[in-house]
């Protein structure tokens, strides 16, 4: 049976002060072509924008350049076009936005909300103990300024000091909470190799693009508290969030590029869209349909009034 992505009646709009009209986005990492799982996320974000009369943007999250084969971002855009999923504005590329990320980091440093870290991964592993459920080491705050900083060693990375618990509402999953100090630890903003971390880049980009609603896969829900903490520190509005069910491989694990998920077969784009819609819990009419017909039918079924 297909998972039902439809949001609950409750909305987090009251927690999203400062948001304007609906602006959503699909933000793939171009480490490989779109597969069945990423198509579900793309379609859900497109449908939510269209059902609410909003705008839908595409952002290519190629901030981790070494993991992004040349031409993959352009190929993803061509896949979306073949599926009839056209953004309302020209796509953005994270690799061209480094100045925005640096400005945000400078603001955090000036406010005492970011600090240099000299720890190696081996040192963090030795001090942190077992990994948390999201697979990351919980950083123990070794280089926090109040603990002596880097102790004269050169900083390798920049970190955000966390404190307390973040509680938020997901339009599908309901009430969510995470204790950042015990489950995540002070997280990286700029990596030791000089690359920008996902958490900072996505927060800066969502604010710069005026994103009001983030619709993405459930595997990214665990990132949301970190992003809310950064939004609060930078004085940015909190978008509303909707995390969609994952498409699973035959072995029960998430279908992903890392486990060899095949690129979408676009010989019949309408059939691929129908499959994605059905995985979202939407019922498609019987019989052959064109791509516009599938999108129209799915949009009619997508709930209205849950995001505003």
From TrEMBL:
Motif 'KMSKS' region, residue range(s) on this chain: 254-258
Residues at which Zn(2+) binds: 117, 119, 139, 143
Binding site for ATP: 257
Residues holding L-glutamate: 25-29, 61, 198, 216
InterPro entries linked to this entry: Glu-Q_tRNA(Asp)_Synthase, Glu/Gln-tRNA-synth, Glu/Gln-tRNA-synth_Ib_cat-dom, GluQ/Sye, Rossmann-like_a/b/a_fold
Keywords, comma-separated and alphabetical: Aminoacyl-tRNA synthetase, ATP-binding, Ligase, Metal-binding, Nucleotide-binding, Protein biosynthesis, Zinc
Cofactor-binding details, from the entry: Binds 1 zinc ion per subunit.
Region (Disordered): 1-24
Position of sequence motif 'HIGH' region: 28-38
Cofactor(s) annotated in UniProt: Zn(2+)
Top-level taxon: Bacteria
GO molecular function: ligase activity
Pfam family, one: tRNA-synt_1c
The Glutamyl/glutaminyl-tRNA synthetase class Ib catalytic domain, residue ranges: 23-263
EC number annotated for this UniProt entry: 6.1.1.-
Sequence similarity: Belongs to the class-I aminoacyl-tRNA synthetase family. GluQ subfamily.
Functional description taken from the UniProt entry: Catalyzes the tRNA-independent activation of glutamate in presence of ATP and the subsequent transfer of glutamate onto a tRNA(Asp). Glutamate is transferred on the 2-amino-5-(4,5-dihydroxy-2-cyclopenten-1-yl) moiety of the queuosine in the wobble position of the QUC anticodon.
Name the record gives this protein: Glutamyl-Q tRNA(Asp) synthetase
